[in-house]
Amino acid sequence: MKNLRYAWTPYLKYGKKLEIEENSVVYHQGAEGRGFFFLSTGGIKITLLSQEGVERTVNYVPEGMLFGEHGARKEAYLTSAITTSPSVIYNFSDEALVKICTDHPEAACIFTNSLIYKFRILAEIISFLNSPVEQQMAHYLLKLINENGNFSIDQTSFARYIGTSRITVNKILNKWKNQKLIQLSNRTIDILDINRLKNIRDSGSNHISNLDILMLTM
Known about the structure:
alpha+beta; elongated; 7 helices; two-stranded antiparallel ribbon; 8 strands
């Protein structure tokens, strides 16, 4: 993933720059695709609405990454994207993508690898879906920190990310704090013992092998 961050920056001139307020919908799940996007500054959360009508946050887009790639060629968006802070994004139409890949053939590889990475995220979600909550929290916390550095997130949002209650998240975070695995400061969660947190993540039977490699590559 780290190799993909800001890799699309040379092609921003082909996109349409948009400045969007906090809590604005960039695209809706199921809507006809109108291209894909690049997050320059700000924050974007990706949500998925189940057939039962339950909405879950499935990813937070790091700055410098593409998102909504599945909206290319007017395909319906598989998820929704919502700003978590005032954001600057770039929208790329199908015509822009063709132009970019014509002028810069290497861009096709970047776009494809970004799309593959999103499928890996989906694989992670499926893998951890039935795992204990503590194991899921360890995995997603490691993922957020790896992708974004010291990531700022409130407990209600983190609970929605895991698909559990705020009370459960609070209980586990305080447990980890007492065990000196993490440090809590305002909205920030700092990892103090990454190896012990990885052990918690890997403690269940349902997990993807080589998760650290998956999160560092691409």
